[in-house]
DNA sequence: ACGGATACTACGAGTTTCGTAGCATCTAGA
DNA sequence: TCTAGATGCTACGAAACTCGTAGTATCCGT
């Protein structure tokens, strides 16, 4: 009812979106992620179009090249995606401070959120 | 140099960790995620042990049963994992407020973070 | 000691992705 | 305009992977 999100579609979109942000071509992204230059274009294209799914180790290398945490590529929720990127830019001290603040007031709210 | 994290290992650990938090057995987790009861135990076990990788649609269903965002299962960084869980418990208004605050002060810091 | 629940694994069958070899479109330069 | 290069994309058989089956081992409660 509420949520039947297609995670594969999410992955495709986040991947393409992040690649375009870096300005890389499909081929160059693949090459920088360690793929053979002769197959890089083909394979990255298939991941963005949704024909195939890459295995986790490649996903991780792609994320590194794209400058995002691996988790970012699997965010169904745009707010969560934004959060991850913003958090990524913080210093360790700032991260800890934010976590402390968030985790302290948890369980206060009952979370009447619907989605 | 710095980071050669094994994302597969991360996935295994987050999966098991989240399952134990819910108190479900490997079998029951699989069943609730829609697997045939006769293969549920076997398959979930292989994912936790790292023998095989599930496809994205199953990962998504597992995350739903476990009550975490799909992205959570791919967090290399513990701090990011904590953040995602904490963020998940906020109301939409609180999420927006937090994002606004984080995104406004971005680009102020140069992010001298090393890891 | 028994039965049941849980975690785990080898093996062949089945399903998926991979590499190859292309095609179509667009742009820049001759 | 014609060509060359870059980019995005796809069908096909081969290769690599996961799947279901059929088990084993261990622990726990009765």
UniProtKB/TrEMBL annotation, chains A, B:
Name of this chain's protein: XRE family transcriptional regulator
Coiled-coil region: none
Pfam family for this entry, one: HTH_3
Residue ranges occupied by any HTH cro/C1-type domain in the UniProt entry: 15-73
SUPFAM superfamilies: lambda repressor-like DNA-binding domains (SSF47413)
Molecular-function annotations in GO: DNA binding
InterPro entries cross-referenced by the UniProt entry: Cro/C1-type_HTH, Lambda_DNA-bd_dom_sf, Rad_response_metalloprotease
SMART domains: HTH_XRE
